[in-house]
Amino acid sequence: MTRLLKNSRHEKFAQGVASGLSAIEAYEQAGYKANRQHAHRLATKGDVRERIAEIQASISEKAEWTSAERLNALKEIAERNKVSDPRVSVSAIAEANKMQGSHAPSKTQTKVEGGDSLSALLEDIARNGARIHDRGMSH
Fold first, then answer.
1. Which residues contact 19 (CB under 8 A, 6 or more apart)?
2. Does pLDDT of 27 surpass 90?
3. Per residue in 2-14, pLDDT tens?
4. Which residue stretches of 4-117 are H helix?
5. List of residues 6+ apart from 132 with CB closer than 8 A
6. Secondary structure of residue 112 in the 3-state scheme
7. What angle do CA 29, 32, 33 make, to 5 degrees?
């Protein structure tokens, strides 16, 4: 529920702070003479503090995309670029797949040094569990 502050300069100050200005910058922008103590006092005043939080929450809600909105945006990108730049289309589809958890896992290679075969190393691990220490493996 949006309720503007009765004092228009207080409202302008709250909007300035909520948009990222420092209290002193917002205080000056609202039409006051620069005064750090007065700016701080106004920023901590109950109704002004509540209004700042309300504006910030509103900004945050508008900035967040739902996952459905993100998927729709990626779908539009994929469709729009499938002829002109197929690489962009493929990238958009890959991102959508990652979001939905249906992408191919990345490959990891492990090199075993010191003459041990991988199967022998796995047998050692199965036999000795957590007591196996560094066996010369590198990723």
1. 55, 59
2. yes
3. 689 999 999 999 9
4. 8-18, 23-29, 36-43, 46-63, 67-81, 86-100
5. 124, 125
6. strand
7. 110
Residue 107 has which token pair? Answer: 């490959």
Q: Is 127 helix (H, G, I), strand (E, B) or coil?
A: helix
Q: Which residue, chain included where needed, has tokens 């620069």?
A: 34
SS3 11: helix
What pLDDT, on the 0 to 100 scale, is given for residue 67?
78
Alpha carbons within 13 A on the beta-carbon side of 31: 6
Position of tokens 């503090």? 49
Q: Residue 40 is which amino acid? A: H
- Statement: the pTM of the whole predicted model exceeds 0.70: no
Task: Give the pair of three-digit tokens for residue 14.
Answer: 């709250």
pLDDT tens digits for range 97-137? 888 887 666 666 666 565 556 677 777 777 776 554 555 55
Q: Are 54 and 2 in contact (CB under 8 A)?
A: yes
